[in-house]
C-alpha cells in the first residue's frame, strides 16, 4: 500500500476551491483509500448553523472514491499529477445512510473500497463503498457508481 504524507490532491482531482472536499490522501492502493478534510468557515456546504450538510458529505465521498480508480491513470512515480487529466461524475447512488453531520472546524476521515470495476479504452465505470467519520462517530455510509474518463492531451 502506498502511504503519502504530503500528496497534493489538487494535482489529481479536477476540483478546485471552493468545491474541493478532500485535503489529504492518507493512504491509497488499487482497492482502498483513506482521506481527510477539515471543514473550514468558507466551505460552500455549511448551512446557517455552521453544519457541513448532507450534499457536502456525498461530494466528499465521491471525491474520495474517485481517487482509487483515478490513480490507475497515473504512473506510480508521478507524484505531481502531470501524466494525464481526468473528469468524473457520480452515475448512481445505490445506497446512502447519513447518521449525523459534522460542524465547522471538525476534520472528517473518509475510507472507500472498490467493489467492482469495468475498464474501456479511456474510461472506467466502478462501484465503491465509502464511510465517513469524525474521531468519535460515523457520519455516512454509502455505495455509489462513478464514471471516470481520461481527457486526451492536446
TrEMBL record:
Pfam families recorded: ApeP-like
Top-rank taxon, per record: Bacteria
Protein name, per record: ABC transporter permease
Gene3D superfamilies the UniProt entry points to: Hotdog Thioesterase
Species the sequence originates in: Lacinutrix gracilariae
Amino acid at each position: 500500500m502506498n502511504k503519502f504524507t504530503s500528496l497534493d490532491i489538487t494535482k489529481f482531482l479536477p476540483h478546485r476551491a471552493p468545491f474541493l472536499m478532500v485535503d489529504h490522501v492518507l493512504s491509497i492502493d488499487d482497492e482502498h483509500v483513506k482521506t481527510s478534510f477539515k471543514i473550514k468557515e468558507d466551505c460552500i456546504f455549511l448551512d446557517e448553523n455552521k453544519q457541513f450538510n448532507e450534499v457536502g458529505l456525498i461530494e466528499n465521498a465521491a471525491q474520495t472514491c474517485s481517487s482509487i480508480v483515478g490513480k490507475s491513470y497515473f504512473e506510480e512515480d508521478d507524484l505531481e499529477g502531470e501524466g494525464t487529466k481526468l473528469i468524473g461524475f457520480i452515475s448512481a447512488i445505490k445506497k446512502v445512510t447519513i447518521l449525523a453531520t459534522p460542524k465547522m472546524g471538525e476534520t472528517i476521515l473518509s475510507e472507500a473500497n472498490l467493489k467492482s470495476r469495468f475498464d474501456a479504452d479511456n474510461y472506467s465505470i466502478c462501484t465503491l463503498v465509502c464511510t465517513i467519520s469524525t474521531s468519535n462517530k460515523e457520519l455516512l455510509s454509502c455505495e455509489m457508481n462513478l464514471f471516470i474518463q481520461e481527457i486526451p492531451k492536446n
